[in-house]
Amino acid sequence: MTGQKQAVEDIVGMGIDGCRGGWLVCRIKQNGRPEFELQRSLADMPGLLTSGVDVFIDMPFGLSADQPRLCDSLARALLGKRASTIFPVPCRKAVYAASYAQACQINQTLCGKKLSIQAWNLTPKIRELDQFLRTNPSLQNLFYESHPELCFRWLNDGRVLSSSKKTSVGQAERLRLLQKRARIDQPTLIRWRKRMGLSNAQPDDLLDALALAVCAAAPRKLRYFVPETPLHDAFGLRMNVVCLSNAE
């Protein structure tokens, strides 16, 4: 067996987080060591995927036609005071609107609510993921929509973190939790970020991607979904969010 093949087979979980430079990919190995890579486009992603290794991604897919997604409200309920970290996902027509003003008008008409500028700023990546999964239907069973704050909730024994990931205190807390499941430290994170370019990914992007990878690598028996029975959009994409149970 070649070293390259062995390295691929050692991958046990994968997390993807959108970032300024594109998509931040974290693959975690069986020994707990993570590796990070910056991908400009999802079109380059298939070469990084490993058969049988699940991908947790912090980007919504499965777009509602004319109402808010149930999975978003259920996921927000799990986060309590951190619920605002999960934004209401625009409906499909709003995601593909030509402008923010048009998207607000469409979403107001179909869903009864305009969308935030933060949600609008994510629509290019939502569209990219939507098109990627529709173009590559064989990959749909590998991808699971997740959320880093739900991942950290599991790592924190079911308790929602109160600190923001944008603060040094919040980042230190998240790193300590990740060290339960991954062989990582602050100097290593800094080296990875420098390798990818400091302007391409923020410190919290690496922490989020690693949290997603750690949870993707966790035993599948711990997984549950909101809603339990997924709804599907007009193109057959699941509309649910994966979570992990602390009751083993």
From TrEMBL:
One matching Pfam family: DUF429
Alphabetized InterPro entries for the sequence: DUF429 (IPR007362)
Top-level division of the source organism's lineage: Bacteria
UniProt name for this protein: Putative nuclease (RNAse H fold)
Organism this protein belongs to: Caldithrix abyssi DSM 13497
